[in-house]
Amino acid sequence: MIDESKQELLVAYILDELDPATAEKLRAEIVSDLEVRDFVRQTEDAFASLAHTVPSIEAPSAIPHRILEQERHDTQQTRTVGRSKIIWLAVSSALAALLAIACIVLSLELHRLRTKVAQVSREMFLLRQENRRITGEIEVLQQKNRLAELKIATLKAQVVAFEASTVVVVWDPNQERGLLQLDRLPPPTPGKDYQLWVIDPKIAQPVSAGVISVPNNGLIRATFQPRWPVGSVSAFAISVERSGGVPEPEGQIIFAGM
Question: Which residue range is the domain that position 53 belongs to?
Fold first, then answer.
């Protein structure tokens, strides 16, 4: 985020009001910093847009009259001077007066443009802050909505030998992925594996969610995903199958629930 002092320094750089050393330092920062470079580009675009909106300013009506009066007065005092010199003096006076008018007009417009640029820069800064705030609120709401849609199921042991074990499933229906937590589940016997199944009432057979690795009877957490897409999940189950798993349940169901 670019603070206000840095913004004013960058505006001065764009208007070529900095000393060479400071300007060179800022130029290097603009090249290396994307946010600073974007701010300079947006501010230059704002200058360009404002330039098209600047109304033309007419010179005060009294100035041409005073120029002519001065010219007549000078002519009366220098009648002895040659005609060419009189014309030159008149033209010089007129040019000097017009130059003075132009300087005044440009000075006023420069001040107005600086004020306008500072105002636009401030508004852009506030808009960026508001955009970040809104984006953060949206992310929080999305996270809350996602958490509200999660389904948590504790599977019940279907065999007495596994009643001391606990199995918890956390299911995300939007992502069709889940988290499995096992505790105090003994490792399978040699040649066997535990396999997780997802039950979709619209699909005839349970959908395999893969073989569960249980190297010990401690706390184990693992993510899972069904082999193919499922719709509304009504239950989960764990069975004892041949080593490596099977496409359809063959062995004993030891845990089930939703």
Answer: 4-147
